[in-house]
Amino acid sequence: MSLRQMEYFLAVVEESSFTRAADALHVTQPALSHQVKALERSVGGALLERLPRGVRLTPMGRAFLPHAQLAVRSARQAERAARAAAGVAGGELHIATVHALAVGLLPGIAARWRALHPGVSLVLREYGSTDALEEQLERGVADLAVGPEPAQWLGPLLRFGREELVIVVPFDDPLAGRGAVRLAELADRDWIRCAMEPLSEGVLVLDRACGAVGFTPRTVLRTEHTSTAVRMAAAGVGVVMAPAHMVRGAVGEDCVLLSLDPPWHRPLAVFSRVPLTGAAEAFAELFGARAPAVPAAGARPD
Asked: Rounded CA gap, 82 and 29, in Å?
């Protein structure tokens, strides 16, 4: 079994066709078929069912697929890491993050990176939740992650600051002239909820906090992306909780941000499966990243 054979197998799965996979790989179809059959002999059975139009995975193929994906991703990451260790003169750096940070924090960091290291391109992979971010980094989809500090992480982790979670209201809201608001004051408000809300110990932070002060948020709109939820709040649909940096990145000055009393923060970190070297280390340095002085913690009010 070889890495090339697994790459060929994955291409056939992705294209659902030997012909299209061969075209994508710039090889002949007989050569591709030969390598896939050799892979099937090595694992002891058929991985693909050949159909009149296309292919589909056999039960053995479905079991084999995630391991082949991980092997190929890990090999590519190993190649990038080896090149990165030699410096930051060229190549790609793959970064995983959550949507809110991609909108609110990373544009400025990416601009600084391009000015300092024009030969190294960035590949950004965005995820809707911290759970998905950590899971995908474990699977090797990126060289490092930028996100809320994981509750538990076995690899290198460097803390670089905190993000504040705020309440967003439109300019004509009765609370707009205030700098801060107690969560209990929002018990009778309509809420916009987002699939990307932060979790703490498996529970949505907002639900836990509102329950602690005696109410359940009355949801009037649900959306997938935090940036969409913020725009809805700016238009007066309801109030929403979001990271302050993301709000400014999503809608600029078109709404009012209210700090919570007491304020809510969560630590941010750069983390990786392997030691940060070369381009990955240089990228972390843009954040002024440092090792955390206290144990990692999930999202929580201060």
From this structure: 32
